[in-house]
Amino acid sequence: MALELRLQLKLAQKLVMTPQLRQAIKLLQLNRLELSDALQAEIEQNPALEEEAAPLETPENLLSLSATTEQNSAPDREQDITRKVEVSDNMTEVNWEDYANNFDSSFSFAHETPPADAPSQFEFISEKPGLMAYLQWQLAHCDLDKKEMEIALFIIGNLNRYGFLEVDMEKIVEATECEQDDGEYILEVVQDLDPPGIGARDISESLYLQLERMGKDNSLAAEIVKHHLPLLVARNFKALSKATGRKKLEVVRAVDFITSELTPFPGLPYVSENTNYIVPDVYIQKIDGEYVIRLNDDDIPRLKLSTHYQELLKNCKDMEKTSRHYISDKLKNADWFIKSLHQRQQTIYKVMESLLKFQYDFFEHGPRYLRPLILKDVADDIDMHESTISRVTSNKYVHTPQGIYELKYFFSTAIPRKGGESLAAESVKVRIKKMIQEEEKDKPLSDNAISEKLAEQDIQIARRTVAKYRDQLKILPVKHRRHAKFSS
Questions:
Q1: Orientation of helix 146-157 relative to helix 131-139, angle to 10°
Q2: Which of 153, 201, 392, 415 has a C-alpha 20 to 30 A away from that of 331?
Q3: Helix H segments across 94-178?
Q4: Which residues of 205-215 are buried (b: 16+ CB within 10 A; e: fewer)?
């Protein structure tokens, strides 16, 4: 078969993502904090963008002050001159030796005692030391040779965020090429470090190591955490009493000691996680009986096109072609950026206005009255695509009279209801949470009982759905919520 070259003319339609369109989409999905950073970055990169200065407030007496100044007569000016002479004469009476730049060369701030409330130098460290750094610092004070230190560093390098060892002894021996006795010895050294319970393989061993550090390795609590951990988790005191052969009251005291004095995850307090603060993108306030939507524009610079670049492009006719093209391109990008920013704000306002219309009962009465809503409902209401609504509502928050909520919160699936309007899933979660808060402490409600109570309100959901919603609310199962009463 012969190969040949051909030219074909083909007509087709396709969507081309221009750089301007990509920039508009990017701005649309940024939240309040990310938008502020993006504006600052664009101002630094594009010289045709300028930050518009805030208008200065004119004092009310500014005009009257200028008029008074113009009407000053010659005698008044003479009096002013006389006052200036008097002031200069008084200046000679000041003892300037008190203000001489004399200082003691032996003076040092290091000799001063800092106040009691002075911040420590450790508070100025940019990054807080984590668990591994804390363990390395302790290992530096241990009498270990080079090979032993290598094994110890491998062990602490394989600790997870909870402080548990994620590799077995065979892996340690294989990776460090050491004898098993040496590996077990170094593991004991690591387990002797602070915090107590570090380097354990599971929760049972971690709790036992903590009791061993307290000298309670032969106590009832040690027996429970070592051999009967599932019964401890279930708080099955009757089974624990039978398994250990101790009285019920002794078992209760041992369990109370374990839960109050020991920690199942010793490494967790040393996890350094940054706190992400929420800044609302939109404010909704009720003023004179009506809800008012206000976009959060605080600390966002007001942008404008550079007047210098505009005049330069307009007046300098003999400018080089490359320079003219550069200035023109920067002005076009700056103009498009400002338009994209305004379009973003208008889109967010329209979406929030639609959400306020659909979820008016929520803003009036709270989450219990949240209605089922999907992206398509809002998209059809404001004549936009669902993908645009998804970008607008992602990672953005609104401050309402009911609290601060993510915009995604207002979209919820529908739960059918007999003889009434469908409820939102979030509304059902609120009802479940309220039932559990009002339950009797010694007789908590099971998932099946909650399902039956909801059925009495014409809300038909299965027991497994109740369990799923309860897990999403981070509420423990009924066996962990039970507070048994014991008589001494």
A1: 160
A2: 392
A3: 131-139, 146-157, 169-176
A4: bbbbbbbbeee
For residue 85, pLDDT beyond 50? no
Q: What is the pLDDT of residues 269-292, one digit of tens each?
A: 877 666 667 888 899 998 888 899
E strands, 345-441, in order: 397-400, 403-406, 414-415, 423-424
In whole angstroms, what is the distance from residue 467 CA to residue 469 CA?
6
Are 321 and 304 in contact by the 8 Å Cβ rule? The answer is no
Contact predicate 281/396, CB 8 Å? yes
Q: Which helix (H) or strand (E) holds 465?
A: helix 463-472
- Here the tokens at position 115 are 């106040």
Q: Are strands 397-400 and 282-287 parallel, antiparallel or unpaired?
A: parallel
Report the amino acid identity of residue 458: D
Alpha-carbon gap, residue 19 to 38, rounded angstroms: 16
Please name the amino acid found at residue 192.
Answer: D
Give tens-digit pLDDT for 198-224: 888 888 888 888 888 888 888 888 888
DSSP 8-state class, residue 459 = B
Closest to 135 (Cα-Cα) out of 274, 266, 263: 266
DSSP characters for 23-85?
HHHHHHT--HHHHHHHHHHHHHH-TTEEEPPPPPPPPTTHHHHHHHHHT--HHHHHHHHHHHH
CA distance 16 to 333: 18
The tens digit of pLDDT for each residue in 468-488 reads 888 888 888 877 776 443 333
- 460-464: long-range contacts, CB 8 A cutoff, minimum separation 24: 460/416, 460/417, 460/418, 461/415, 461/428
Q: Alpha-carbon dihedral of residues 456, 460, 462, 465, nearest 10 degrees?
A: -110
Structural domains of the chain, with CATH: 131-270 (1.10.10.1330), 282-412 (no CATH), 415-481 (1.10.10.60)
* Model-wide pTM > 0.85: no
End-to-end Cα separation, the chain, in angstroms: 98
Structure confidence at residue 421 (pLDDT): 66
Angle 219-222-228 (CA atoms, 0-180°, nearest 5)? Answer: 125
* Tokens 């096109």 found at: 305
Cα 56 from chain centre: 36
Of the listed ranges 18-32, 134-148, 158-172, 338-352, the one predicted with least confidence: 18-32
**Whole-angstrom Cα distance, residue 321 to residue 329?**
12
**Cβ atoms of 305 and 49 closer than 8 Å:** yes
Question: Sign of dihedral through CA atoms 208, 214, 217, 218?
Answer: negative
Scored b (16 or more CB within 10 A) or e, 174-191 reads ebbebeeeebeebbebbb
Which of 419-423, 428-432, 437-441 has the lowest average pLDDT? 419-423
